[in-house]
Amino acid sequence: MMFFFSFPTLVIVLVVWVPIVLPFTIILSDSGSPSALVDAPQTGFSMNKNGARTNPQEQAAVFEIMKATGNGWATDIPDVCRGRWHGIECMPDKDEVFHVVSLSFGALSDDTAFPTCDQKHSFISPAITKLPHLRTLFFYRCFSYNPQPIPTFLGQLGPTLQTLVLRENGHVGPIPTELGNLTSLRVLDLHKNKLNGSIPASFRRLTHLRSMDLSVNRLTGQIPDLNNPVLSILDLNQNLFTGSIPPSIGNCPSLLKMDLSRNHLSGPIPEQIGNLRNLVLIDFSYNQLLGPIPNALGKLGALQALILKGNPMESTLVVGNWFERLKDLMILVLSDMSLYGPIPESLGLLPSLRVIHLDRNKFNGSIPASFQELKGLSELRLNDNQLTGRVPFIRETIWKMGQKMRLYNNTGLCYDPQNGLDDDIDSLVISGISYCETSRSTSIPTTQHLSDNSGHKSIFEWRSSAQICGSSIGLQVLVSLLMYLI
Ligand SMILES: *[C@@H]1O[C@H](CO)[C@@H](O)[C@H](O)[C@H]1NC(C)=O
Ligand SMILES: *[C@@H]1O[C@H](CO)[C@@H](O)[C@H](O)[C@H]1NC(C)=O
Ligand SMILES: *[C@@H]1O[C@H](CO)[C@@H](O)[C@H](O)[C@H]1NC(C)=O
Ligand SMILES: *[C@@H]1O[C@H](CO)[C@@H](O)[C@H](O)[C@H]1NC(C)=O
């Protein structure tokens, strides 16, 4: 390891936490911060026995921090910056004195052997404030069985700290106002704790934030006004936020990913969302957002995933045709939104679509013939609507998609034998879809086993298994997208 950027950490941050934006490795570029440290590859670093030594106060602080996490073994190391372990990074100043710039704890994966924490007894030592050059602080699954608030003294790390990760640590209580003093923070990750209270007003000062992940907590109050020109990732999913999505969201033009799903947000989606021309992923699912779906979404030419399911929008897709310009859209999830009217033919002209979920709405009319042209389509859910007419897919498409094509509970759908006949179109049979009436219907050999009784029994069996899987649908979507990007 000749480089001082904590490279394994950065790569992991991107791969594990923000799979959606894998191609956007810009997020954590570590440049431009004024520093007295020598910011370059350090050759001969740990070999140079007579060279630099760690600053003694910082070494003492590291020993305290290590002891507080159950890593007392570290105190046997004569010089922490020279006998380095994974999880500590140091940089020399021009006088060849090493300073600690990064500390990481927690078993993130088999490949990253950061020191693990004793989850029952660990705590964050106040000695951390004696590391004046610290840029990265990272604790993962460290205090899970010793619930504690996020210490306010972390705010004393001031404008030096750039990355603060306290992920899945079991932290309780509010987010300290003092974190607003970390004015150079680029990455703030408090995912999956038990934090309550609201987002501190002092966060207004975090104008360099590129990624803010407060997901899976118990945070309340409104989403504050945002004015972050470089914010790329905003993840507030699975909290208790109320109120509407602030129109000031339009002041974050760098946003790539915005996940506000599973909160109690209400009101309409603000038109200002149309300013966010770089957005790749929107997930607003499972809120109480109201329709109509804003036409401004049509300005988001970079959008790859739009997930609005579980909001009672009572809207139609035919007004505005906002989706027609979303040429990169791969994932469209609009289930359970009380959408009505026809499914527009032009939807099938979006060349990148892979996943379409329009199930559990009130769509009527027929399935657009253009859907047959979606060569990348791997998942189609149109079940529980009021669709009628011919299923426009040839036998090969139906066979290939299998259970990934859900058409059940649309009483008016039928299958045209001219699209290919065979005994093995199981997914149609279990969806209760029978052959369309044609003048040559006498030539169909398989009529008996499409009879109502056997068909309906299968539908109900299938429905119950689909509901069991329902909770993992979001994950499936992410996984599909991840697989695509890789
Ligand atoms: C840190 O923040 C708190 C509350 O936001 C403030 O009272 C305090 O003066 C700040 N400390 C420093 C060192 O800036
Ligand atoms: C946060 O949770 C703690 C218990 O963990 C509780 O005592 C406190 O009142 C809660 N605060 C808010 C603002 O809900
Ligand atoms: C679809 O439903 C609407 C009422 O919501 C109705 O006016 C329209 O005629 C229906 N269209 C078809 C093709 O059934
Ligand atoms: C069929 O779908 C409608 C929504 O279009 C729903 O209200 C109804 O409960 C569904 N029927 C069954 C048997 O699930």
UniProtKB/TrEMBL annotation:
It is found in: Cell membrane. This is Leucine-rich repeat-containing N-terminal plant-type domain-containing protein. Its main location: membrane. GO terms for cellular component: plasma membrane. GO terms for biological process: response to other organism. The lineage of its organism: Eukaryota, Viridiplantae, Streptophyta, Embryophyta, Tracheophyta. Keywords: Cell membrane, Leucine-rich repeat, Membrane, Repeat, Signal.
